[in-house]
Amino acid sequence: MRLNIQWIRDFFILSKEEQDIYNHEIVLINTQRTLVMCVVGMILTLANIFSFAQNIEFETGLRLVWRQNVIVVHATVFIIAFVCFVYILIKRKLNGGFVMPSKVVVNVIQLTIVLAGILLAIIDQMLGMGIYAFLLVIIALGVVYYIRPLNSLLIYTLAITLFYFGIGLEQIDRDVLLNARVNGVSFGLIGLGLSFIFWRLILKQIKLTTEVNRQNEELIEQHSEKDRLFSILAHDLKGPMGSFLSLTEVMAQDSNEHDKEELVEMSKALNRSSKKLYSLLENLLSYSRAKLQILQLKPVKIDLLYMGNECISQYEELAKNKGIILNLDIPQNVELVTDAFMLQTIMRNLIANAIKFCKNGDTISIKSTFTDANYICISVEDTGIGMSEDMLGSLFKVGVKGRLGTKGESTSGLGLLLCQELIQKMNGRIEVTSKENKGTNFFVYLPK
User: Please, which residues bridge with residue 96 across strands?
Assistant: First the structure.
């Protein structure tokens, strides 16, 4: 019983996704169809007015009243359709030639169609038992328009009720009245069922189309991202690989012509090129594993001060050579449960990135603060050259080539992309603030 009630509730009460589809897509479709219905309605009503007005002067009594009433109903429908038609055209012109969705116009035309069908069926009872107008509009409404289930239930309930009691005002033959009511109610329920069916069909179709479009966009973006990534690698591998090959070639061919000091310098240059290659390939491997969902979160308890010291120790020599001061401002006994490898990778990349864009005398500070009971903020703040607003907006985008560091260090942007991927896997977020010539601050928020 509870399951049935839940099913009924889900059917009549739209979810947020369904509400968005209704407001942004289905209302537009209904408005476009209303424009067509207005044109068709004006043509049909004019034709009917002309037909019923022919030879009306020869009619008397009940037939004259019948014709006059039919003409009045059609004339009223024509006026309403004309006003709505003009309104849609004006809104369309103001919108650059595109139809503007309008729930009001759609609802007005829907009610006009229903009431016209009921009135014509009542009027026809003056001379016979015809209810064709009501049967036509009650079916057409469910087929032409995509109506929300709750609205559809209200409209059809109102239409069937008005029809049921309305035709009794003019039809005096009980058998004819019973037959008309049975047929009218039956067709009304059929129309309601069709309305439900077409609503579900359009909703399913739009959801499917939206999902297909989303997947296509993701595939296009992934393909584009792959191309941009290969472009980055081709550029950034070329430099250190070229230096590496040149130096090894010189050392292999002309080793006897170089003294010990020259060989030592070449060895240091080889070491620097090797470190660049290793760092780039390490980030690429981790980034690829994260994107392919191979890299899985393995939470362990981490002493943040200990990890901060480990990360800083790896870059002390590099910072010292550039005259940069590294500060670690993490209190003792700060612990969090997360993946140690991922956190260390994030901190190392952010520290290395800060060193690239700092100059002699600048300071880099690694800090931690508790934002609330559940999250901790780890920040890497520097007093380096900072970034412009345009640079800030292009961070974390594949294929955006970064600028050179203060000592000409190359940068691929892959380190920040890796940080973003890992932080997302850790259910955290990363924020950046920066001002040119004043420094950059990276804030990593992670659950404790």
Answer: none
